[in-house]
C-alpha cells in the first residue's frame, strides 16, 4: 500500500504493487481488512486517476478492488471495518470511469464487472450509489463492446442481477428498457448474452435470474425477446444432453429449473 501511495505516478511500481495486493487479498479477509485499514482503497483510487489512460495499470488496480470487496464482509471477528462511504464512492467512480475510457479492453472489463458486483453485494453504500453514477448503463455498454467474450457477459449479467436487489437500480433498469433504443436496453443485453453464449453456465444462470427480476412489467415484450434469442433451439441443435452441455448434473438441474420458472412467469 505504501508503494502505491508514495509512487502513485510511476507506472511499473503501481502496476506491480496492485498485482501484489490482488494476490494478497485473494480469498483472504484478514489481508483485505489490512489493506482497508492502511488506507489502501484511497491509494489505489489515486493511482487509477494518475494512470487513467493506461488500461494495464487500471486492470491490476481494479482486480485488487475486486478481491478486497469480495472479502471485506468476512473480516476478523471484532475488527473494525475501515470503510467509509467516501472510500466506496471513489472506488465505484474510478471503476466506472475506467470502463468508459477503455470499453474494448476485454481483460479490464472482466475485472471491472466483477469488481462492481462485489462492491454492490458487500457494501451497504455501493449498491445505493450505482444508480446515480450510471452503473447499469456502463455495464450494458461493456456487454455491447465485448459481445463475443463469454466471461465479460457472465460477469456483467451477475453484476446486473446483484443490482436488482436495490430498488433504485431495479427501477433504473426497467426505465432504460422503455427509454433506450435497441441494443442499449438492459433487456436486449441479457437476451443477447443468453442467445450468444447458451453453453456458459454463469451467463445462462445470471441472465435468466435477471430477466425474472425485471419481467414483472411488459411481459409480452420479454416473451418475444426470449423466444427470438434462439437459446433453446441452439441447445436442441447441439444434440447433447443438458449435462453434456453445461458440464454437470447440478448445473443442468439448476438451469432447467430457472428456465421453467421464467417460462411460468412469462405465461
UniProtKB/TrEMBL annotation:
Keywords of the record: Repeat
Keyword RNA-binding: no
ARM repeats: 39-68
Protein name: Armadillo repeat-containing protein 8
Organism: Hemiselmis andersenii (Cryptophyte alga)
Upper classification of the organism: Eukaryota, Cryptophyceae, Cryptomonadales, Hemiselmidaceae, Hemiselmis
